[in-house]
Amino acid sequence: MIKDVTDLEVYNLSLDLLEPLYRITNLLPLTHRRLKFQANEAGEKIAPQIAEGFGKKRSPREFCRFLSMALGSSDEVITHIREIKIVAKTYTRIRTEDCEWLIEKYKILSRKLNKLLSSWQKFD
Predict the structure, then answer these.
(1) 14: nearest Cα among 37, 39, 48
(2) Cβ distance 87 to 32 under 8 Å?
(3) CA 11 – CA 44 distance, rounded (Å)
(4) Which CATH superfamily is domain 5-121 in?
């Protein structure tokens, strides 16, 4: 039974993925600080968006709106990691395998968010 937002798997997964995201973005050279900022910002938005939506779950439409934003942020992280993977081809401190692993984890998060969103849209 879900008593609060911390019981939501997508919320916990989004927080768990921050550490590996930071590990990869911290390896970026200073010339790519904007990419680092954008990737971290997108990753950091997901859990608060889920939490804010959960707080408004009495309105399925509002909860769905925040879940949609969280899904967009998760997909944005995937795009940024793919960009980092391109940088990794010329900057060997970053392993492409680590990027691929993290992309897959965020794809799983996006699928779970999409499933949760679909189930709540039925109430709207």
Answers:
(1) 48
(2) yes
(3) 11
(4) 23S rRNA-intervening sequence (1.20.1440.60)
Query: pLDDT tens for residues 64-96?
Result: 999 999 999 999 999 999 999 999 999 889 999
Report phi then psi at 112, rounded to 5: -65, -40
Q: Which two tokens stand for residue 6?
A: 């911390």
Query: What gap in Å lies between CA 42 and CA 80, rounded to an integer?
Result: 9
From residue 105, alpha-carbon distances to 7, 14, 21, 55 in Å are 19, 10, 10, 26
Instruction: Give the span between the Cα atoms of 47 and 11, in whole angstroms.
Output: 5
Domain boundaries, the chain: 5-121
pTM: 0.94
